[in-house]
Sequence to fold (179 residues):
Amino acid sequence: MLKPRHRQSGISLIEVMVAVAIVGVLMAFAAPAFQTWIQNTQVRTASEAIMNGLQTARNEAIRRNAAVQFRLDGGTTTQWRVNPFIDPDGVPIQSRAAEEGSINASITVLPAGADTVTFSALGRVVPNADASESLTQVDIDNLLIPVVADRRNLRIVIPAGGALRMCDPKVAAGDPRAC
Fold:
């Protein structure tokens, strides 16, 4: 008497290999876009870090009822420090190293060569202790992204009133994200 055949369950090695091949092809197509996304995320991280430093300096100035300065160390990296106005080279209130999540971000400041902005006790921009020009704008970019159209540049605007703003220079006017 013949035994009834049991139905085979599970998947075969060939089915697994086909699935791995399909996933591999999809990953090969997605890798460049994924790398661009990672690089653009570093631009966002650098922008938010600088914005947080500026907000910290402004908030500390208001909280302490005394002038506090924000300095981009070197003016071309995302490294910054917040110091009291009376002791700009002393122990910082807060600082951030350039290596913290955004090493590929590049920075352009306006006016050229400026690296410091000082906030008054009212949160407004006042002249720097060393009489240097105050930062008015910081542009953050990532030059490692080969296609310029794929870059997500961000800009931080520092008006005299102290109302800090981060915006996207590529967005059309009328959009709330526009500069």
